[in-house]
Amino acid sequence: MQNSLYNEQSGKRCLVWMVCGYMFGIFCCLNFSFIYGIGFDRLLVYSFVFTAIFAAQILMSFFASGRHCGTALRNFTLAWFVLLGFVFGILRTAAFDSFYCLDLKKTAGTENEYTGILTENPQPSSTGKTMGFTVRIMTCGAQDNNRKLNGNIKLYVKPEECKNLKADDVIAFKTTLNPPEDERFEGGYSRRAALYRNGLAYSAVADDIEILRGIEKPKDFLYILSRLGFRLQKSIIERIDAAFGEQNAESALLKGLLTGNRDDFNDEQYDNFALSGFIHITAVSGMHIMFLYAAIIFIVRRLRLPRFIGNLIPIPFMIIFMAAAGFTPSVCRAVIMTCLTIMALMLKREPDALTSLAAASALILSVNPYALTSYSFILSFSSVAGIVLFASSIYKWENRIIRSFVNSNNKKTVLLRAADGLARSASVSAGAQLGLGFFSARFFGYFSWGSIIGNAFVIPLASVSFIGGFAVWLVSFLFSGAAEFIARYPLRLVLRIINGLAAFFSFPVFGIKIPVPPKSAFAVYIILMYMLYKKLSGRQYKNKTDA
Questions:
Q1: What residues have CB less than 8 Å from 363, skipping those under 6 apart?
Q2: Fewest CB atoms within 10 Å of the CB: 6, 211, 252, 380?
Q3: Cβ pair 483, 243 in contact under 8 A
Q4: Under CATH, what is the fold of the domain 105-217?
């Protein structure tokens, strides 16, 4: 039994370290190739040579120390998986660059007539002089002599050209698809990387747009799912606006909570949530998926359905909700991890959060390696990694302090239970901040220590608002008056409290400005976090042994 458990844990460790190597391989390709002009083929040769040298060194140490052969073998295995993942990362990135939207690339460089379908409503560009929207290319060439294509581009037109355009319209236009400029952004990534990570191949400009009628639209599963998600998001936004009766800070926050749409946020409200560290509640992520999953499971258990069916029912709802959120890396990560947990429970296996996180990251990066450059991916995965690695140890430390102040033998006292709940929320928030430490400094130059305290209050209120918002949406189909009452009275009060907390914790006293660290400091940060994890996990193991 012990050997079986050990083998299972060893397999999980190998997977985690292999994914770490995979991410490092992608990172090297995206950075060194862009900055220093190192070719993929050369980088791949170097990786194989490095793998052989490192493997030989570990193998020699294994034969040289017989007493520690078990430890040496495990280290050799882990190192081999890391390097194997590193090579896979390089290969996947090279293959993605070579074959991404290959048919669309063949038409680039010359003016062509394209037909495509809008996958989103037009939005003002950063300059404000044009309107931009994503177009899924369907055909290239004249109507009587066209060929089918598949790929997404960002199309920019004059505002007067898209007054009647909306998502799901089929359009015809002429443009020239030119390779994106090799312009470097802050961080070293090119414009091509910015396009690729958003699922785009090109950006283009068109003058004349013609709306086509009676054109057959795509029938693939991904498109149907995306359209279903878009219509769900549109329905939620429209019915929330109708229930509140006006555009205000509370309705804007609720739409952000339910769909991740922050278009109605004013500058002050956005700054409050960003500075306070509460902006994560308006970006659809694991918290929202957890709320949705808990609500569905609550209903399923009341229906007394068989356990097997009950476990499967939340999955399609989570996938549709993922589509409504626009398939962002954070929500994809949450859905994949939740599905893996469900599968583990159905197979009567112990779920492992770190392994699920590694599997989710590997799956997302296998689909699109450029997701590694996305803020959504980086912040989501680093925060969850911090929670998985540190939250449990921090909670136990907090719990010991609480019990030293609260002298009671009755574990069910109101005071002790309230303090325990706050400690759990604070430990999760503290773990997330440890995982985000380097990236908060790198991306924002600001660290909100007040969020560790504030999130302990905001997250429970956000869960109430999330469930209440979905209740408003569902009830509005049957009883619009009841939906308006829920939205304008109890729900508005909770949303006002959240807005007030965001404004309070946005004061400068709750934050620290941090100098922006260089990329090279990331290695130091990883080493420090690893040392902290080993220290905390070692102390935890010692306490278990003493007990």
A1: 336
A2: 6
A3: yes
A4: OB fold (Dihydrolipoamide Acetyltransferase, E2P) (2.40.50)
